[in-house]
Fold each of these.
Amino acid sequence: MAEFTLRIDGMHCGACVRRVSQALATEGLVVKEVRTGAARVESDQNPLPVDRALAAIEKAGYRAHLDSTGEVNTAQAGQ
């Protein structure tokens, strides 16, 4: 599994967190964490569905981009 972090603009509250979580889950992505301003997503798809995650967040009403580090963690689950 690979994990990537998205930075999200426009989130201000728990309802925003819930909306983004639901949007990502609807796309079949594994949501590791969503907090105001960011989301960690995990996927075993290759290539990683970053564009799909970004589109889901935009559809929910927010702007998002891959974390500026561009870091993708590919550690095995459970390690």
Note: The first strand starts at residue 2 and ends at 9.
Amino acid sequence: MLPWRSGLNEDEIVRVKELEKNLKDKYQLRLAVLDQEQLVGWTFGWQDSGTTFFMGASIILPEYRRKGLYSKLIEKVLEITNLKGFQTVTSCHIVTNNPVIIAKLKHGFSISSLEMDAVHGALVRLSYHHNALLKAAAKFRAGAVGEAKIKQLLDRSLEQ
């Protein structure tokens, strides 16, 4: 990880801390995976906007991988964020982190962008939409569904 904060002067440090205070009341979620009482994995994330939750980081200890624990974390995050009312869940991953990207794709996430980050390098952003209209709109924008599908969902939502 690029230690970009180490290059800040005192005034910049103060300003960054002030900005970070603005985020103090946003929703945060932390989940742990335990084997008996031993911590073997975790995830945490936060409210990125009024309707978007960002899955910031997750880990499963190497000896506990490939046992479905990460999938269970994804499922729990999606369950909780849906109950809280978030419309979209996003995450960013190093583009070569295939196990995590594949796991998220299997759970209904879609690739929504590629990004270049000064700290982390090349990243893929994944998005999951709880909202069916947003999900269909994302597919429409990518050319995966036609306009008729969007109209059908709009008509259905207007009827309710």
Note: The chain has a mean pLDDT of 88.
